[in-house]
Structures are given as C-alpha cells and as structure tokens.
C-alpha cells in the first residue's frame, strides 16, 4: 500500500492537534483573564496563537512523514473521483465564510464542514494507520466542535446574505486553488485524476 499524502494545506501530529484545538476554543474565556496592559496595544494574543499553530503544524508534518506505513484497509478502486469532488467542495465551503456571499448564510459551520469533507476525502484514498489517526482525528475534532458550539450557543440565526457575485467569485477561486493543488500533486509524482488509488 502506498500512502498518498497531500502536502498542500494539510493540518497533524498527535498532540499538536489537541493543543491547537484547545488554544482556539479556550481563547474567548481566557481573554477576560489577560491583564489590561496586554490589551492596550492591539491583540498580542493573536500573534502568540499564530506561532503556536505554526509550531503545531510543523510537528504534524514531521510526525506524519516519519510515521511507519501500517496498512489498515485497502482503498476501493476508482474512489479517487469521489475524493476529487469532495476536495473541490471542501475548498468552496472553506472560503464561503471569508467572501460572505449567499452560501455562508445557508450553512452554520462552513469551515468545520469543509474540514470534515477534506478528512473524509483523504480517508477514502489512504488506508494506513497514520492517515487514519491524522485525518480521522481532524474530522472527529471538527464534528465535536460543531456539536459543542451548537450546544453552547443554541439556535442559529443566519447572517444577512451578501451579493451573489461573491459566490461566483468563490467558485472561481476554489477551482483555481484546486488546479494549483492538483498541479502540485502531479509535480510531486501523483496524478489525482487517474481515479484509481486502490
């Protein structure tokens, strides 16, 4: 079995994801505990959090690349086509809350849902232990985050929609990014358009 690692925009390493998730979700409650001097000039906590996330991402990449290949299951033939579709949808969803057109008013957690699709897409074509731990943990983390936020915040009131042209721009950007990502895969020796990764 060959591990198909997508090096572009990939988050994991075992403890790093948990630390990153903890930092992100605890930050609102820690804000009140910061001294006033820390809030006087901008928001230094954002810079620190960014450094922590980058360090976690580095640990994820190092840990995943160094993990032994332990097969757990054999991906189905031709499932790569579904992987490609899910990846394109994930890019669209992830950008929906950034451009704020019409789509982001229909989905409460577009970026978490994008992460779930991204993780599922990679589990379809990677059946080794490291991939299951990496992508499975990120998918479950996103699902758990959705459930916790929904329970904490209650009923969701959709935001007012933006202009439809933003969604059209989002689609164009997503397709462009998808092309760049797949081109990188091909340059690294893996063609995601072959369809059969099993």
From TrEMBL:
Which branch of life, at top level? Bacteria
Pfam families with a match to the protein in the record: NnrU
Q: Which residues cross the membrane?
A: 47-65, 85-103, 131-149, 169-188
**NnrU domain span:** 23-189
> According to its record, what are the GO cellular component terms?
membrane
| Record keywords | Membrane, Transmembrane, Transmembrane helix
| InterPro entries reported for this sequence | NnrU_dom (IPR009915)
What is the membrane topology here?
Answer: Multi-pass membrane protein
Compartments, as annotated in UniProt: Membrane
Stated name of the protein:
NnrU domain-containing protein
According to its UniProt entry, this protein's organism is Cereibacter changlensis
């Amino acid at each position: 079995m060959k591990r198909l690692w997508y090096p572009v925009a990939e988050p994991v390493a075992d403890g790093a994801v948990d630390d990153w998730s903890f930092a992100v979700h605890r930050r609102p409650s820690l804000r009140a505990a910061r001294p006033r001097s820390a809030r006087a000039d901008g928001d230094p906590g954002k810079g620190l959090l960014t450094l922590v996330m980058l360090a976690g991402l580095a640990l994820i990449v190092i840990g995943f690349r160094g993990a032994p290949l332990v097969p757990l299951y054999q991906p189905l033939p031709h499932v790569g086509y579904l992987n490609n579709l899910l990846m394109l949808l994930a890019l669209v969803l992830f950008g929906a809350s950034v451009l704020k057109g019409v789509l982001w008013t229909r989905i409460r957690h577009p970026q978490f849902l994008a992460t779930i699709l991204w993780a599922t897409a990679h589990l379809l074509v990677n059946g080794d232990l490291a991939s299951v731990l990496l992508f499975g943990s990120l998918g479950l983390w996103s699902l758990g985050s959705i459930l916790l936020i929904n329970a904490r915040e209650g009923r969701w009131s959709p935001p007012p929609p933006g202009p439809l042209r933003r969604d059209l721009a989002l689609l164009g950007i997503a397709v462009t990014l998808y092309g760049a990502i797949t081109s990188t895969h091909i340059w690294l020796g893996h063609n995601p358009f072959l369809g059969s990764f099993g």
